[in-house]
Amino acid sequence: MTSALHPSQFEVNEAWIAFQLNDTPISTETDGSFNSICLMDAASCYLLGTELVSTSQLEPSQKQARSMLAAAWAHKEQYPRTLFLPTGRFQGTLKAEAEGVGITVVFAPEHQLLVFIGEALEGYREHMQPARKT
Length: 134
Fold this sequence. Notes:
CATH topology: Nucleotidyltransferase, domain 5
Structural class: alpha/beta
Radius of gyration: 15 Å
Helix content: 25-40%
Shape: globular
Number of strands: 6
Distance between the termini: 44 Å
Number of helices: 3
């Protein structure tokens, strides 16, 4: 995508965006480490769903990709026309599952997606950072 993207360019449920919410893995004592993969509506910037994906995987499994799309579909009972994916990410199962239900997949540099996902990323960082001692 060469032109700048902005939420005002879209109607609700016209386009979704998939992205990784966390910078560092989410660690658990019993199940290992995970990344939180989210689907967001491009117009409203509403989070439609998330999946915790093991850090040993590059992207959601087929079952997880289907679950993400189904959870997002449930909000409006329709799929969007477009799913934006960060360039170089989610090129396998998530892309294939989206295309399988008729969604056009468009890859965009992550910096162009920040206008949509930036607030969610910042909120997550603020919430998950340990409190600083003063």
